[in-house]
Amino acid sequence: MEKVFLELGGNQGDRWQLLADAIKLIGDRVGTIVGQSSVYETPPWGFESRDFFLNQVIQVITPLEPVALIQELQLIERSLGRVREAQQYASRSMDIDLLFYGNRVLQTDNLQVPHPRLHLRNFVLLPLCEIDPDFVHPVLKKNIAELLAACSDESKCLKFSKD
Fold first, then answer.
1. Which of the listed ranges 56-60, 73-77, 80-84 does the model predict with the highest average pLDDT?
2. Domain span at residue 82?
3. Closest CA to 79 of 124, 29, 36, 119
4. What is the pLDDT of residue 50?
5. What average pLDDT does this structure show over 2-19?
6. Which is higher by pLDDT, 4 or 80?
7. Which of 34, 107, 111, 134 is the most buried (most CB within 10 A)?
8. How many C-beta neighbours within 10 Å does residue 76 have?
9. In a 10 Å sphere around its CB, with 0-12 CB exposed, 13-18 middle and 19+ buried, how is residue 47 labelled?
10. Residue 99: half-sphere exposure toward Cβ, Cα within 13 Å
11. Alpha helices in 30-152, H assignment, sequence order
């Protein structure tokens, strides 16, 4: 069993319901959810769109090894309407990123852990800091609070409530 951090986000469809559905499916098919951040509304990162994202970070205890975990997360994305575009950054119903898999460092053609750009993104660091500000990035050797303080991303991340 391993503790992993996942970032969930989407800017198409019923964003709030899609987050709730993703969390339920992750709990049913991936492992036990042991932490959840607030939900944040954020502008697109890396591309232009009028549709803002809802983002959230969760912590899960999973028996799945990294490759099996990624495969299951991609199945969940597809079940929630995700269509992968040719371009890397595009609007989507649901994106689930594996941020950390315990303290493991992995690099294959299809998987890089820790996520290679997490330290550049407020919409990842802010909710991650809510859950575990003292978690140390195994490559950068800084904790999440330090990474957030040093992040140059100035995009706004506003707590979101469905009400």
1. 56-60
2. 2-159
3. 29
4. 82
5. 94
6. 4
7. 111
8. 21
9. exposed
10. 27
11. 66-79, 122-131, 144-150
Catalytic residues: 82, 92, 95, 97
Write the single-letter amino acid at 101: Y
How does 135-155 read in b/e, with b if 16+ C-beta sit within 10 Å? bebeeeeebbebbbeebebee
Question: How many Cα atoms are found within 13 Å in the side-chain-facing hemisphere of 39?
Answer: 18
The tokens for 39 are 């939900």
For residue 114, cis peptide bond before it (omega within 30 degrees of 0): yes
Q: Determine the residue type at 129.
A: C
Count of alpha carbons within 13 angstroms of residue 27, beta-carbon side: 11
- Which CATH number does the domain housing residue 135 bear? 3.30.70.560
Q: What would the pLDDT profile of 114-149 be if each residue is shown by its tens digit?
A: 998 999 999 999 999 999 999 999 999 999 999 999
For the chain, what is the domain count?
1
Torsion (CA) 125, 127, 133, 137 in degrees, nearest 10 = -40
